[in-house]
Amino acid sequence: MITKVLDSFTLLAFLQDEAGAKVIEDLIMQAQDGQIKLALCVVNLGEVWYAIARVKSVEIADRFVQQIQGMPIEIVDADWAMTRQAATYKSRGGLSYADCFVAALAKLREGVVVTGEMEFEALKGDVKIDWLR
What we know:
This protein is about 55% helix and about 15% strand. The chain is α/β, with parallel strands linked by helices.
């Protein structure tokens, strides 16, 4: 079964009902039905939290994280294998460190990154990417 790895861009789009939210809703329904697996690195969950806390409030950020934790999305801790792979991507340049964890998780799970962030173009050919447009 394929694993789709979400980044903060996709989750923020979903949570804030922005462009692409319907695509993410469909992926969540597919995961709920057991058709696919969804995964998110805890580093990127932290990225979602701080993005919301900065603009709205800590309380709202906590509620959004609780909502995510109730979804059929596996929250994956960053172990050394993932951190090393993320650091390898970061050493090449062109990608934020947090986004390197998205790519590393996808690489290690032989999954697909789901994103709308064009900086992932730097990894095209190394990890599979489904573009949220």
